[in-house]
């Protein structure tokens, strides 16, 4: 499927990480999502009910990232994928979770995990 809704650079403040200071202080996370779905019906009807409302989806994603601290951004990415796939129209999703302030002892531009999940 070549149709996509793309959300890039969603920002969340959360308390994920394996270190106590990450859990205590929190840090920013940046999320990119590509939702694969058929947009032909929505394009023909011009009705938001025939697609996934990207504004509402963005809020759902940020809320999912900001709740319930976990150790790994892999777990956060899986949580985001589940939120997106909860929308029946979405067949496949790509999720990238960036942790720009990760506690890495060398200079770096970004650290991220990327996953792809599809409806079974």
Write the layout of secondary structure elements.
Blueprint: E1 4-14, H1 20-25, E2 27-37, H2 40-45, H3 54-66, H4 73-85, E3 90-98, E4 112-118
Antiparallel strand pairs: 1-2, 2-3, 3-4
Helix pairs in contact: 3-4
Notes on the protein architecture:
With 120 residues, the chain is an alpha+beta fold. The protein has four helices and four strands. It is 32% helix and 32% strand.
What labels describe this entry?
single chain; about 120 residues; alpha+beta; four-stranded antiparallel sheet; 4 helices
Concise summary:
The protein has helices at 20-25, 40-45, 54-66, 73-85; strands at 4-14, 27-37, 90-98, 112-118.
H-E string:
EHEHHHEE
Number of distinct helices = 4
List the strand order in the largest sheet: 1-2-3-4
| Contiguous runs where pLDDT drops below 50 for at least 5 residues | none
Portion in helices: 25-40%
Using the CA coordinates, give the radius of gyration: 15 Å
Total beta strands = 4
Distance between the termini: 15 Å
In terms of structural class, how would the helical and strand content be classed? Answer: alpha+beta
Q: Main beta sheet, described?
A: 4 strands, antiparallel
Oligomer: single chain
| Cα shape | elongated
Mean pLDDT: 97
User: How much of the sequence is in beta strands?
Assistant: 25-35%
């Amino acid at each position: 499927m070549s149709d996509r809704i793309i959300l890039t650079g969603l920002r969340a403040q959360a308390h994920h990480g394996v270190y106590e200071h990450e859990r205590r202080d929190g840090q920013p996370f940046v999320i990119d999502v590509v939702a694969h779905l058929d947009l032909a019906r929505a394009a023909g009807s011009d009705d938001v009910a025939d697609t996934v409302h990207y504004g509402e989806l963005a809020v759902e994603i940020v809320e999912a990232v900001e709740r319930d601290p976990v150790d790994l951004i892999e777990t956060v990415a899986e949580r985001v994928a589940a939120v997106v796939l909860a929308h029946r129209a979405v067949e496949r999703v790509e999720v990238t979770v960036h942790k720009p302030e990760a506690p890495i002892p060398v200079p770096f531009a970004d650290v991220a995990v990327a996953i792809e999940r599809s409806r079974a």
